[in-house]
Amino acid sequence: MPFSPIDLSHVRVLDLSQNWDIHTPGFATYEGPTVKWIKRVAFDKVGGQHISSTLHVGTHLDAPLHFITNGQDIGSIPLDKLVGPGVVVDLEAMGIGDYDIYTSAHFEEWERKTGLRIEPGDIVVVHTGYHKYYPSNWYGESQPDETRYFVKHPGPTREFVQWVLDRKISWFAIDAGSMDHPMNTVIRKIRPDLAAKCAEKLGRPLEEIWPDEDLQLMHYDLFPHGVFHVENAGGMIDEVLDQRLWIGCFPWKFNGGEAAFCRLVAFVGK
Predict the structure, then answer these.
(1) What is the tens place of the pLDDT at every residue in 19-75?
(2) Element (H, E) at 89
């Protein structure tokens, strides 16, 4: 049959990725990038750079291999998993802020408020508003504060995990340092001073909210089901809040990779 070209003239492609450069911080205990020139046009007639970095820097995709021995790697994730329909859920508009816990009830409230529904197989982009605190935020409002960005953003507890599985969500992206609450990661031990402030705000010991067996449950408990996520989203995300649209994540085909830098984009009708 004859080829029919796809008409993209009525589609905008919006970048939901953060900048990546030598100033981009890695997650706690992960080294950030170094970039050096190894060839210069003046001497070698060509420019060349050498990059060294851990993978959990800037906008990146976590593969199941990140937490599961012999789990699915970046190169094994098919493109039709990484591109698909989804929604952008604006939690910031619900008043979710520093150290707060979001639950399935917040997402169901969002559905009632917007008239949209999170369907089986959807990609869910979580907007906390914390992208504005990212040190390399390049678009829209910017209030660089890496402590607030990495250590104070909201996150879920165990009840959210089962709801995600029941809803058959494909994968997540979030405009913060992790899909897990920062106090359910190594950050709780690294910053005990702020862990105490978080416990004070939440009104009970953090060990009761996230016991040891719940450590990083958005990773450990969802990755075995193929529900992974993109961290450090941002960019033009404020332009697509409370919308149903198509989302694409584009890492390089990294065989054996437990994570990969990526571009996260939204395809929006003009």
Answers:
(1) 999 999 999 999 999 999 999 999 999 999 999 999 999 999 999 999 999 999 999
(2) strand 83-90
Structure tokens at 137: 């935020």
Delimit the domains of the chain by residue range.
11-19+55-269
Per-residue pLDDT at 1 exceeds 60: no
Closest alpha carbon to 70 in 229, 219, 227, 224: 224
Question: What tens digit of pLDDT does each residue of 152-195 get?
Answer: 999 999 999 999 999 999 999 999 999 999 999 999 999 999 99
Q: Where are the alpha helices (DSSP H) in the chain?
A: 41-44, 79-82, 104-114, 146-151, 158-167, 187-190, 192-202, 206-209, 217-220
Three-state SS at 267: strand
What percentage of the chain reaches a pLDDT higher than 70?
98
Query: Do residues 160 and 214 lie in contact, with contact meaning Cβ atoms separated by under 8 Å?
Result: no
Superfamily of domain 11-19+55-269: Putative cyclase (3.50.30.50)
Task: Report the C-alpha gap between 172 and 161 in whole angstroms.
Answer: 12
d(CA 209, CA 202): 9
Residues 6+ apart with CB under 8 A from 70: none
Return the number of other C-beta atoms located less than 10 Å from residue 196's C-beta. 11
